[in-house]
Write a structure and sequence with these properties.
homodimer; 147 residues; three-stranded mixed β-sheet; 35% helix; binds manganese (II) ion; binds zinc ion; DNA-binding
Chain lengths: 147, 147
Amino acid sequence: MKTTVGVPLDIVGYLKGMKIKPSLIRVKVLDYLIHKRNHPTADMIFKALAGEIPTLSKTSVYNTLKSFVLAGVAQEIKIENTEVRYDVFTNVHGHFKCTVCGSVEDLKLDAYNITSDDLEGKKITEHHVYVLGFCSNCNKKKNKKNI
Amino acid sequence: MKTTVGVPLDIVGYLKGMKIKPSLIRVKVLDYLIHKRNHPTADMIFKALAGEIPTLSKTSVYNTLKSFVLAGVAQEIKIENTEVRYDVFTNVHGHFKCTVCGSVEDLKLDAYNITSDDLEGKKITEHHVYVLGFCSNCNKKKNKKNI
DNA sequence: GTTATAAATTGTAATGATTACAAAAATGAA
DNA sequence: TTCATTTTTGTAATCATTACAATTTATAAC
Ligand SMILES: [Mn+2]
Ligand SMILES: [Mn+2]
Ligand SMILES: [Zn+2]
Ligand SMILES: [Zn+2]
């Protein structure tokens, strides 16, 4: 499949390949995820698409996201317990969340390994890394205040 | 303060040192956290203590845990978005959660470091690592079935 | 095109952990 | 004791997510 940086250009074809029928809603949601790259909540997606799809229901967004996760098209990112965020990029990477503005960014993990005796006898299916702090913008603002 | 493996033996004294008045509930909750080491939810703590403190309310458990987190006595562990778990050990370590039985265990991180260009300009305040999979017990059971 | 069946979408109600808040009880100094 | 402060409690509210049934849309056979 034709991609740039792991992003499928042909969204309809990509969904078909993943055995998901490319309905309007599903195409729009995937398109949003791919091009915004902002790790949105279901509600953020709903608000963003409600304009172009006036009949859209929030349940449909949830249904769509659930089918994406099931098919391996997207993954759930759980940082706060108050919200689930969604990510189309399923390769291994971590996340950074700004505790001020709430933005979530990707974190390439250059040297990432978990070694632990405590994993003896276990079967690992997923591992997650996330970091909290001040994003560049919010950090700058904070430093100005403290001058 | 006298401790074994980071566990304060004198719970009342420890709470006083952390500027938390050692009420019965607070002592019992901290005692539970320290000696069970099971990363419980607020509800698990409530159910466990309701017997010895018949008047206990769930709100008090939440209040207590909130004050512990504020004072740095405990930390919140967020793996599922359906529950917050609590941990008294605030040194750096990861967690493992079994997707079958739901148990949560500590994960010593022998060689743990996150290096990423993406952290440029940010200020990090917390980092979290967690792993999902089958615990030793559930893994054994699973293997037996597949023989 | 009509009809029949399955799939997708919607609206509303339910769930459940957590929080808000005000009343009641306990504490502790004066 | 008395009064103020802190702690604890019970109940109601919040809010993201799920359950579920009804409606709409898509698909294929006739
Ligand atoms: Mn990501
Ligand atoms: Mn732990
Ligand atoms: Zn920020
Ligand atoms: Zn298990």
